[in-house]
Specification:
By secondary structure, the protein is of the alpha/beta class. It has helices at residues 42-52, 79-90, 105-116, 127-141, 164-174, 192-200, 223-226, 236-239, 258-277, 285-295, 299-316, 319-331, 344-354, 365-377, 410-418, 441-448; strands at residues 3-8, 11-15, 27-29, 34-38, 56-59, 94-98, 120-124, 146-150, 153-154, 159-163, 180-184, 205-210, 230-233, 247-254, 337-340, 358-359, 382-385, 400-403, 429-436. Helix 9 (258-277) packs antiparallel against helix 11.
């Protein structure tokens, strides 16, 4: 008896095996009378054949061995980067490495590529990151070896950088072409479409990189089957001062104006009354969904939802918060500062009031690049943004963050802190968090600061 496997549109087709003796992860496909599995089962299927002593004809693998791969420049890795790659190797070149923003995750990926020496797909969430990785890898390994997939590019090479969306679109076509897949910002991976892409790839070697692996929906529990478990982890406090910029954080409590307080209390009363009448306690995303479903069924419910949203608008961009931002910008005059908000409306309000460049997800790519370059050069020393600069952009010159408003997620808060921690000679980073006094924002702040970095 012998087996034969081949790749077919994101799946593996197994010949030579009976329905009652299928390997783990393989199901019988009655349409073709053969076994079929996700492409990601490839490595375990090969190992299963070896353990059973069954001859295997492997017609699956379309990726190359990069035996001649050499770095164009020699860099000495930091101790924790060497430890991270060693831990990943010990886990059979599978798993997630958790390092703070600015700690050199991309260089860790370069070390992993050299470790495996196989055709590699690097998957990133944004076009900005695609451009950054593409440039870094070309400088590391040479222009002829590195291609890009996404943002108008369709150039498959031994080392290819792709967006998550393009990986999803083309996974079934190119799923057999890579032996190593690197998922940058891998906390994005556990989403339906992206999971499908991960399952279509045969890559036996898998690396996830992130500063913030946990997800509020608990989907990070799926890393094990998609990439591998967390194999190495360092947090901001462990690296600050040596490999990251030293930093401080400060929570500043800001009171509402008399008019804002009166309106907030009235609206909050409408919202709370509806919750009590319907026996709803909002403590989790599931509780919030229950509130939305219940509120949508009545005029009173819709009024409660509207009241809640207006309360958020008041606390997220109150007039005294804007005044405090102005004071902090004056205090930190000359230092490159990012002002973070939770929504575009607040970002635009801060921008208009303080005459700051504003970057949101609506900002044209060229305009966004213009302002980031101006910020990098020091032509402008402050920008305001909603969430688009939380991740996926490299601004090592940033040294001050002012969080006007945000979500309750630890991930977002850590990402915002990470934006100002890239090391530079003499740099002392500082994060200010503005919290509206005696409002629901107090609890939001407490939740997002539940991390060792704060």
């Amino acid at each position: 008896m012998s087996w034969s496997i081949r790749y077919e549109s994101g799946t593996l087709v197994l010949d030579g095996c009976e329905p009652d003796d299928l390997p783990a992860g393989v199901s019988w496909d009655p349409r073709i009378g053969r076994g079929r599995s996700h492409g990601s089962v490839y490595a375990s299927l090969v190992m299963d054949a070896r353990q059973r002593g069954i001859p295997l004809e492997d017609r699956t693998r379309g990726y190359e061995k990069l035996d001649a791969l050499r770095p164009l420049t020699v860099r000495t890795p930091r101790a924790y980067q060497t430890e991270a790659v060693a831990a990943w190797k010990a886990a059979k070149n599978q798993g997630v490495i958790v390092l703070p923003t600015g700690a050199g995750k991309s260089f860790v990926a370069e070390l992993a590529i050299l470790q495996c020496r196989r055709s590699t797909l690097v998957v990133v969430p944004t076009l900005d990151l695609l451009s950054q990785w593409y440039g870094n890898l070309r400088r590391a390994f040479g222009e002829e070896l590195v291609g890009a997939l996404g943002g108008g590019s369709h150039d498959i090479r031994p080392i290819t950088v792709s967006t998550y969306d393009s990986a999803f679109i083309y996974a079934e076509r190119y799923g057999d072409r890579f032996g190593l897949v690197v998922w940058d910002e891998c906390h994005h991976l556990p989403a339906a479409g992206y999971i499908q892409a991960a399952c279509a790839l045969i890559a036996p070697f898998r690396l996830g990189l992130t500063a913030t692996p946990e997800r509020p929906d608990g989907a990070h529990e799926q890393y094990g089957r998609l990439i591998g478990d967390i194999v190495f982890r360092k947090e901001i406090p462990e690296l600050a001062g040596d490999f990251l910029a030293p930093y401080t954080t400060e929570v500043i409590t800001v009171s509402l104006s008399d008019a804002e307080r009166a309106r907030y209390d009235a609206l909050r009363g409408v919202y709370r009354e509806f919750l009590e009448q319907n026996h709803i306690r909002v403590r989790s995303p599931e509780d919030w969904q229950r509130f939305i479903q219940t509120a949508s069924r009545s005029k009173a419910g819709r009024a409660a939802h509207k009241a809640h949203m207006e309360c958020k608008r008041i606390v997220q961009g109150g007039e005294r918060k804007l005044a405090m931002v102005a004071d902090l910008l004056a205090e930190e005059w000359g230092r490159r500062t990012i002002v973070f908000t939770n929504d575009n409306a607040t970002a635009m309000r801060v921008s208009r009031a303080l005459l700051l460049p504003c970057i949101t997800h609506h900002t044209d790519v060229k305009e966004r690049r213009y302002w980031i370059d101006a910020f990098t050069r020091g032509d402008v020393t402050a920008v305001v943004t909603s969430r688009v600069l939380n991740e996926g952009v490299d601004i090592p010159e940033a040294e001050v963050a002012i969080v006007v408003s945000g979500t309750s997620t630890v991930r977002e808060n850590v990402q915002r802190l990470g934006r100002i921690l890239r090391p530079r000679e003499g740099k002392q980073a500082r994060l200010y968090e503005l919290v509206a006094e005696n409002t629901g924002e107090t609890f939001t702040s407490e939740r997002r600061r539940n991390h060792a970095a704060f």
